[in-house]
């Protein structure tokens, strides 16, 4: 089966179909499978491999074997491969978007403008970034003259674990820099949203990625994820997911001295000051709360509004949220289904907590009207509550759904303290027409990213990551390449070994000092200035 046939199967399947692990350039079935459920219908639509340590080890062995040759390829070659991957995904954008929507529950229109284009951009971005990556160098003068420079070398097999909320978007954001830097990969996508990762394997084949360079093993955390991060030939692990699992990875890998990047949970505040233009800000604030059913780690979860505009804001927020359409992801809707029944029960349990503690609902208590085919799906309407305390579970715990807490504040110092009063520190947003205030507050918020009068805008050269319980490490052009490489410092002491006199020989001649052979061009360059401690009569050339 090729990519076109696999896409056709996923797009037109009338009964559940089986996907397979991708190991050493081949698709490999497993005996055990996990049912993958279409969140919008509640029906099984695919069977995902339930891999264990045996399959993980096969994938790691293939990646380890391929590393020797892949790590020696030129950056130009790797850039070409990444661009081919991007071109193939882009050529099939609509198909990938439709399948991503069915697998995850998000509106297909969102997948068309966010998920799949960002996947394409991730591969193209790192295809270019690796061509322009630079290394540090310095000419040392004391106590001797020596050239010091840094080389970045690929590390080996990268274990990549990606989440279910933005499957293609975030998996590609790990695979692209890992490959660009010269590593090989064993990826484990979420067992809830595996189909587009399986299709991506066909893209790798079509793009000419050598066998063993990328391997994809499907399964759950305990059976597949844990053997991957513990494998002795996986020296580097990049994880995006919950804080609970991220902490578990950090704990079990601590004795193994692995290089870790952990992008974990968030409880992101949005602060709306009195000077903010509420009408102008409202569409973006609504998106920050409810995009992708609130299943984005960067979505707003706590909304602080200055008390002088709170009533006006709450009314407009409620109207805007109630106007959002919830329904079948393939239709023209704003919110689709949340990813699974398990997650649906988690989200609705927090809505139940809000009722139990007497919270006031600004929106979210109307009945949903769904078509017959979607009545067994996992749909949650946009919900916002107020009149709760800052120490309530709704304000402290990550819900990861379309449930927002909206509370008033009085002073700048007060709201900064309250915004920081959680274990998380992934992102925050600030709305104010006072430029000084915006940047003053941004400096004081404990978050890896702070948006000022905007949301979900970032140039990929800028670092991304969290503070506190939201993560360890940063991702960007520079940060990702540095994470997926090991820095080595090289010191060249030729400068202190060459003779002091000015040399005027031809470019083909060589001189040997201390066993080192130096070309005349290099020698002339370094002999323009004598090494520290050399003959005091030597003079620099003019």
From TrEMBL:
Native source species: Plectus sambesii
Signal peptide residue numbers: none
Keywords, ordered alphabetically: NAD, Oxidoreductase
Lineage of producing organism: Eukaryota, Metazoa, Ecdysozoa, Nematoda, Chromadorea
Aldehyde dehydrogenase domain residues: 32-490
Family, similarity comment: Belongs to the aldehyde dehydrogenase family.
GO molecular function, one term: oxidoreductase activity, acting on the aldehyde or oxo group of donors, NAD or NADP as acceptor
Active site positions: 263
Cross-referenced InterPro entries: Ald_DH/histidinol_DH, Ald_DH_C, Ald_DH_CS_CYS, Ald_DH_CS_GLU, Ald_DH_N, Aldehyde_DH_dom
Name of protein: Aldehyde dehydrogenase domain-containing protein
Name of a matching Pfam family: Aldedh
Protein origin, superkingdom: Eukaryota
Entries under CDD domains matching the protein: ALDH_F8_HMSADH
